[in-house]
Design goal:
By secondary structure, the chain is of the alpha+beta class. It has one domain. Helix content is 32%, strand content 25%. A four-stranded antiparallel β-sheet has the order 1-2-4-3. The longest helix is centred in the last third of the chain and has 19 residues. The chain is elongated, with a radius of gyration of 30 Å. The termini are far apart.
Length: 154
């Protein structure tokens, strides 16, 4: 057993002393700016996705125009060696939620849908179409649906 003096000394080494509390600083000025963190699709990431989407086109050409749908499917598993994010359902869901507001995605999807509508219409010239774009995730895949309506030019 340690003598009383040494026991007290070893206890003081084991129990740290609480830090000295400083008073809180009072703010007399405020910032004009509020900061926030945003997440967007990267331009290169959009390029990687649009490099090889699976394409499904359904539509009908009539005397008055074209009505159809173009679906682009992006399988994240095929991009695993090119993207640093995990190719899983959470990444697909997050990307799908950003795609409908991303201008690069909208432009590229629009070009593909218009090209497919023109191909389906054949020689019949079409007026600029009305498009509706929706995105959803299914597992590690992203489905981008573009509904197309276009009238024939008179």
């Amino acid at each position: 057993m340690l003598p009383p003096r040494r026991a007290a000394a070893s206890r003081s080494k084991l129990a740290p002393t609480p830090p000295i509390r400083k008073p809180m600083a009072r703010s007399t000025r405020v910032s004009l700016f509020e900061r926030e963190v945003t997440t967007r699709l990267s331009p290169v990431g959009v390029d990687v996705l649009f490099a090889a989407p699976q394409l499904l086109v359904e539509g009908d050409v009539s005397a008055t125009g074209y009505v159809g749908s173009t679906m682009l499917t992006f399988d994240l598993a095929t991009t695993a060696n090119l993207i640093s994010d995990p190719p899983d359902a959470a990444t697909a869901k997050r990307a799908a939620s950003l795609m409908t507001e991303d201008p690069r995605t909208r432009t590229r999807a629009r070009r593909i849908a218009i090209r497919e509508a023109a191909r389906a219409a054949g020689a019949a010239p079409l007026e600029p179409p009305q498009l509706d774009l929706r995105a959803r995730a299914a597992g590690a895949r992203i489905h981008l649906d573009i509904d197309v309506e276009a009238r024939r030019k008179p």
